[in-house]
Amino acid sequence: MSIDHFPVGLEFDVSYPNFTATLSLLSTTQLKFEIKGGPLAHMEVVDIHVVPLGNSMFAVSWQEKDGATVTNVQDYDRGRIHSHATLANGQFLRMTGSITITRASDRVIDERPQRNKALVREAMTSPFQRHEVAAVERLYAPDYVQHNPSIPQGRDALQALVSNLPKDVYYEPGLTLAEGNFVAIHGRIRGWAESTQIVVDLFRIENGKLVEHWDVLQNEVPDAAGLGRTAMFDPKAEIRTDRA
């Protein structure tokens, strides 16, 4: 991640334990803050230094007119700010506050969707295309919640299922959509049932692992295009979406 991802134009409130601050990110070199109420109440525009930390996280530091210094770790993935401030009187503060966005940035600041899409594609192709049993432990949470009534609960059950998959089971990923901690993937799977099936899998993700799953399946009509109808599945759909 580069400084180009710093969400210039973003305005948000930060709720600390003892007060609320409003921040406006004016540029990659300036921000405006206002502390509302209490002994620290004031408003100021300050020059800032921004260091990208990856995964939508930035270290932002500045010095105020009275000599106070502040370093914030702004974590937009999790909606939190970890703030360390040395006040003009020498008092040192460590605070963590939650972010409430009041004006969105024109820039994309949340990289979770792209990371989660890649995670889900790997979690579907490793076990159900390449039959890699070890991938289940690596990619799925131990208490994995399964909403498909024909599959038992938990990661161990899923690992056992993958271990016993017929050799002709083969999954193809297609269009993948993501928002926040949820990913939906459109795919085609052969060998799972008597007929080739088109499936939409929906996953919830926490801490880099799949924790919950829903799916809907239907038999593919292979000659739909020959009948003058749109094909049910296109493995290139994701490529076209990424380029759009």
Structure, explained:
The protein has 244 residues and is an alpha+beta fold. The chain has two domains: 3-103, Calycin beta-barrel core domain (Lipocalin), CATH 2.40.128; 112-243, Nuclear Transport Factor 2, Chain: A. It is 16% helix and 45% strand. The protein contains four helices and 13 strands. The protein has helices at 112-128, 134-139, 155-163, 237-243; strands spanning 11-15, 20-25, 30-36, 42-54, 57-63, 69-75, 80-86, 92-103, 140-146, 170-179, 182-190, 197-206, 209-219. The chain has an eight-stranded antiparallel β-barrel. It has a five-stranded mixed sheet with strand order 9-13-12-11-10. A hairpin with a 4-residue loop joins β2 and β3 (30-36).
Present the secondary structure layout:
Blueprint: E1 11-15, E2 20-25, E3 30-36, E4 42-54, E5 57-63, E6 69-75, E7 80-86, E8 92-103, H1 112-128, H2 134-139, E9 140-146, H3 155-163, E10 170-179, E11 182-190, E12 197-206, E13 209-219, H4 237-243
Parallel strand pairs: 9-13
Antiparallel strand pairs: 1-2, 1-8, 2-3, 3-4, 4-5, 5-6, 6-7, 7-8, 10-11, 11-12, 12-13
